[in-house]
Amino acid sequence: MIPLSGLVTDIYAPSMPTMASELQQSEGAVQLTLTFFLLSYAVVQFFAGSIMDSYGRYRITLISLVLFILSNLVIAMSTSLGPIYAMRILQGVAIGCIGVSKRSFFVDVHEGEKRKHYLSLMSIVWSIAPIVAPFIGGYLQHFFNWQASFYVLAGYASVLLLLELLFSGETLPEFRPFKRKTILKDYGIMLRTPMFIYGVICSGLCYGTIMVFNLSGAFIVEHRMGFPPVVAGYVSLVMGMAWLLGGFLGKALIDRPFVPKLRAANMFGIITAILMIFSVAVWENLYSLVVFAFLVHVGVGFIFNNYFAYCIGRFPKMAGISGGFIGGSAFFITSISSFAIVGLVHPQDQAGLGTAYLGMTMLIMIILLFLIRPGKVRKD
């Protein structure tokens, strides 16, 4: 269940140029299908967490899976962007509920170091989706068409629904009364915890850096460089491997001093983005694009793994509402920042993509270098 959100965002990335052509729409109009999903995915999590803390995770997850299956079928049969926009918004709602439920699972059933271990592992497992999704999507586009990705998502979710019915159940250990004052008090506690808030923003910007490539990478590879969708899928596969590598490095160095290692990873990303921009005079082709983007993705993957795991485990007694707040806030920041930087820079080549990366990594630097003080990080 954990990689499902990544599959929904990435599997049809190699098909975006074809969707623009067949639906007779601009690149920006097709890119909005991703932005609408991310926005609804973010907003619903603000409410899903408190609802699940009061009424449980299981039934809401089942309903969300059914809605997700139906929405994919509608998208696959659509011939205009209007219904696709509507269904992508519905998918964001469904996947947001599923995401909150499954992130809360680890906090519901594990404690202490075991919880810390599984939350870090969760981030790595989640990173599988950006690896396999565009790779599969590239071949689906090559052998079938853009609709195939959504039929595959419907089939995958159908298998998950069956497994949930057969093997899963309610994990919430204690139902919290659904009271407005209690919920507002919980939000107040989170908002008054600076390291937690900085972590939410930082996680959103890190994943937003990945979304910059998802929004523009296929267009650069296919339209500007002239490669087929399968190649765009392989490039996205390499980007996913970079994100996974960053996650593994984050888990391997989980006991190292928290803030210094994040600052080092961020500085690595900034230097790489600068080199990506200024190296175009001597080295600009598909390989250079992949090498520099790969290194940037490793850096933000490392930061995300560490900080997202910290935030998820920070408030174990209100796992649902805190998980929803983290997911909602982080992915709201992801959707706004990635769409804004792509709209501002319009990356159409290596230098443009490097400029977008530089903008994102500099925003992360503001948090890690100027706002966070290492002594304020909790040891737990």
- Biggest sheet, in brief? none
| Count of folded domains | 1
Query: How many separate helices?
Result: 15
What would you give as the CATH superfamily? MFS general substrate transporter like domains
Question: SSE string, helix = H, strand = E?
Answer: HHHHHHHHHHHHHHH
Head-to-tail CA distance between termini: 27 Å
CATH architecture classification: Up-down Bundle
Radius of gyration: 20 Å
Q: Supply the CATH class.
A: Mainly Alpha
In terms of topology, how is this protein built?
Blueprint: H1 4-10, H2 16-22, H3 27-55, H4 58-76, H5 81-109, H6 112-126, H7 128-143, H8 147-167, H9 180-191, H10 194-224, H11 229-252, H12 258-278, H13 286-312, H14 319-345, H15 350-371
Helix pairs in contact: 1-7, 2-3, 3-5, 3-14, 4-5, 4-8, 5-6, 5-14, 6-11, 6-13, 7-11, 10-11, 10-13, 10-14, 10-15, 11-13, 12-13, 12-15, 13-15, 14-15
Your description of this structure?
The protein has helices spanning 4-10, 16-22, 27-55, 58-76, 81-109, 112-126, 128-143, 147-167, 180-191, 194-224, 229-252, 258-278, 286-312, 319-345, 350-371. The chain has 380 residues and is an all-alpha fold. The protein has a single domain, classed as MFS general substrate transporter like domains (Growth Hormone, Chain: A). It is globular, with a radius of gyration of 20 Å. The two termini are 27 Å apart.
Keywords summarizing the entry:
single chain, 380 residues, Growth Hormone, Chain: A, 15 helices, 0% strand
